[in-house]
Write a sequence for this structure.
């Protein structure tokens, strides 16, 4: 029962052999030509005829290397140079008319104003306390010289009492002064010492009072600054010039701390962001000229401003940023772009994408015709893929690239090549 499938397989195999290997004989038989006419001329050497009969017909193109700007091409998108959500730092009712999204705003322009409530009264109270504290400062400063003067007087009286005591003791030893006089002199010394201690305590009290007044002034100044800062938070201004991406907070709405007032974006200049594979990252340099083609066909030019030093852990690619002028603001945030970053020139061949093939090891390459009319595999590197073809490196300056039939030959197989016009 299996004889018919086996016969069918044999016939199909024979037909494929004739179609690929013995194509000339098959076509000659189909045209009804004699086998002798399809065979090589008997005057040619037998070896040459055998080689031509075994050769596989292919179509090749003669290619010469050309020096091209081997730009690094990648996909990316546009990004706003800046984007910030402007939020409130305090709570309050919005008392300003809203600005509508799409409006252009200048740096420092008022976006939202909040109702001050009792904050103005708190500021006035803090300023009054500061003035009161400053008014006590001259009085506290004046107490210190008075106390110091009293201390100097007490010290002088103590010195005088000691002199009188010394004189009384000497006179008493000579019988010229009574014991009562000596006792009186000693009592005067103790009184003077007490006066000195009292004066020293008064100086310390005056100094402490001045320090207390100074601390009160600092506290009052801090309270004033706090109240002024709270007042400044009632007005929310634009941090930079740009466009409103959303309406500002509506009149009468209540903003709490961290409440959104508006979203502001800056589009001039604009960034174009792409991700470079790790195999090509060494070809990209900061400040290198670059260009981008947007999805609508517009082309813009700029320069590389940033190259990431850390690869994305998922894609193993590196973030690259371009800065592009956008004075008319016609380039929007998030547009798709094809980026080309200039790199050093390289000699490359332009071959059809269909000519590219894979070796048994999975390496990308093309098959060429060598000087002995045999097929050879050459590994290549793809520089750029364009509508006209693929620019590749890795070939000699001149190469005969097989463009039709490369999938039916292997290294060393004799081929009979017919050459096409490279312009086709």
């Amino acid at each position: 029962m299996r004889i018919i499938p086996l016969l069918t397989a044999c016939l199909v195999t024979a037909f494929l052999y004739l179609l690929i290997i013995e194509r000339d004989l098959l076509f000659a038989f189909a045209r009804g030509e004699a086998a002798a006419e399809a065979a090589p001329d008997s005057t040619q050497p037998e070896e040459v005829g055998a080689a031509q009969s075994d050769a596989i017909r292919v179509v090749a193109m003669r290619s010469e290397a050309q020096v091209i700007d081997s730009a690094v091409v990648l996909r990316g998108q546009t990004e706003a140079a800046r984007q910030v959500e402007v939020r409130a730092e305090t709570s309050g009712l919005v008392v300003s008319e809203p600005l509508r999204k799409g409006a252009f705003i200048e740096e420092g322009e008022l976006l939202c104003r909040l109702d001050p409530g009792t904050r103005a009264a708190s500021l006035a109270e803090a300023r009054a306390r500061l003035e009161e504290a400053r008014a006590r400062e001259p009085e506290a400063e004046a107490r210190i010289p008075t106390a110091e003067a009293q201390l100097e007087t007490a010290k002088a009286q103590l010195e005088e009492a000691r002199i009188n005591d010394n004189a009384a003791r000497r006179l008493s030893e000579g019988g010229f002064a009574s014991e009562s006089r000596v006792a009186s002199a000693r009592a005067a010394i103790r009184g003077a010492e007490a006066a000195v201690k009292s004066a020293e305590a008064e100086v310390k009290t005056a100094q402490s009072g001045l320090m207390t007044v100074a601390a009160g002034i600092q506290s009052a100044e801090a309270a004033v600054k706090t109240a002024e800062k709270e007042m400044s938070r009632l007005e929310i201004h634009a941090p930079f010039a740009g466009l409103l991406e959303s309406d500002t907070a509506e009149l009468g709405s209540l903003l709490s701390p961290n409440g959104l007032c508006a979203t502001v974006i800056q589009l001039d200049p604009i960034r174009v962001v792409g991700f470079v594979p790790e195999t090509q990252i060494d070809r990209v340099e900061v400040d290198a000229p670059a260009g981008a083609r947007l999805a609508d066909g517009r082309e813009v030019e700029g320069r590389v401003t940033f190259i990431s030093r850390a690869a994305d852990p998922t894609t193993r690619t590196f973030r690259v940023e371009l800065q592009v002028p956008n004075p008319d603001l016609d380039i929007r945030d998030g547009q798709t772009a094809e980026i080309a970053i200039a790199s050093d020139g390289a000699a490359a061949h332009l071959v059809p994408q269909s000519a590219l093939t894979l070796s048994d090891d999975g390496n990308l390459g093309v098959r060429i015709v060598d000087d002995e009319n045999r097929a050879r595999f050459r590994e290549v590197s793809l520089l750029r893929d364009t509508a006209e073809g693929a620019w590749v490196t890795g070939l000699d300056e001149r190469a005969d690239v097989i463009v039709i039939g490369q999938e039916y030959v292997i290294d060393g197989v004799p081929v009979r090549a017919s050459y096409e016009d490279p312009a086709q």
Summary: The CA atoms of residues 250 and 267 lie 25 Å apart. Confidence is low (pLDDT under 50) at residues 33-51. Helices lie at 3-20, 23-31, 35-38, 46-54, 119-173, 179-232. The chain has six helices and 24 strands.
